[in-house]
């Protein structure tokens, strides 16, 4: 919808008669008085101009002087029928101006969680029909998942010794992705039966794997007894909307000066 061109009082327009046009354009103070009665003293700023809507109505605009509404405007529609000797207030509303401070675009709550947002005690179920997960009886095509891989030299001149493996295992067990971490202690589910758990090959695969969930420990080596709220078996929240908070209508809130 195209915004009507703003006019200053006295500018010719398509009103039915010069008298009626003058009546509509000259109702600025009447519009300000109506706004002051509606919003209280101090909420109405400078006069921004008037635009003719049609032969019987015009819109007067004022800067809104309200906390949190920078750049917003009051719009007051006045009306006068042909032959009337005064204009009447038809509507008044708060509208965003060209420099208004607006809220960010709405994002559904289930799309707001980003990698790194998961904290101890949080629960995050995978999306329905998550393409990253398949039933356990379906072959994945990755032998490290489907079969027990044997550690071979693979042409390397040196491989990790038993002592080196034990040192690495101890560090990983005691680290941020071990069973003693705050995240693991906050849930009863563990990585060893999670669909995002990719077990390591060789001897370390008995205790450790890599997390493939981008919302959790993505790319990190995790202990099989580690766990988090984004386990693949985390149930969907009941109902719709946010599982923790009910929506509220700020239109029913009272403001105090």
UniProtKB/TrEMBL annotation:
Biased composition (Acidic residues): 247-257
Region (Disordered): 1-21, 228-257
Lineage, uppermost ranks: Bacteria, Bacillati, Actinomycetota, Actinomycetes, Mycobacteriales
Species, as recorded: [Mycobacterium] fortunisiensis
UniProt biased composition (Polar residues): 8-18
Any Pfam family the entry gives: DUF3027
InterPro entries, A to Z: DUF3027
Protein name, per record: DUF3027 domain-containing protein
């Amino acid at each position: 919808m195209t915004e009507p061109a703003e006019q200053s009082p006295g500018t010719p327009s398509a009103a039915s008669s010069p008298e009626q046009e003058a009546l509509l354009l000259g109702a600025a103070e009447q519009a300000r008085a109506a706004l002051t009665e509606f919003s209280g003293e101090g909420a109405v700023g400078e006069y921004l101009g008037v635009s003719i809507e049609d032969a019987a109505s015009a819109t007067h605009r004022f800067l809104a002087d309200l906390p949190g509404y920078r750049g917003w405007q009051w719009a007051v529609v006045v009306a006068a029928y042909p032959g009337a000797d005064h204009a009447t207030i038809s509507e008044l509303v708060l509208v965003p101006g060209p420099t208004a401070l607006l809220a960010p675009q709405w994002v559904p709550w289930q799309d707001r969680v980003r990698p790194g947002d998961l904290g101890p005690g949080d629960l995050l179920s995978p999306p329905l029909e998550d393409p990253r997960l398949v039933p356990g009886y379906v072959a994945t095509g990755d032998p490290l998942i489907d079969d027990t891989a044997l550690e071979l030299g693979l042409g390397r001149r040196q491989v990790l010794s038993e002592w080196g493996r034990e040192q690495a295992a101890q560090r990983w067990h005691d680290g941020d992705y071990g069973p003693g971490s705050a995240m693991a202690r906050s849930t009863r589910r563990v990585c060893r039966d999670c669909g995002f758990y990719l077990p390591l090959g060789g001897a370390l695969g008995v205790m450790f794997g890599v997390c493939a969930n981008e919302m959790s420990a993505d790319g990190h080596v995790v202990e099989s007894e580690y766990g988090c709220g984004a386990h693949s078996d985390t149930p969907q929240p009941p109902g719709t909307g946010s599982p923790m908070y009910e929506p509220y209508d700020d239109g029913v809130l009272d403001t105090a000066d």
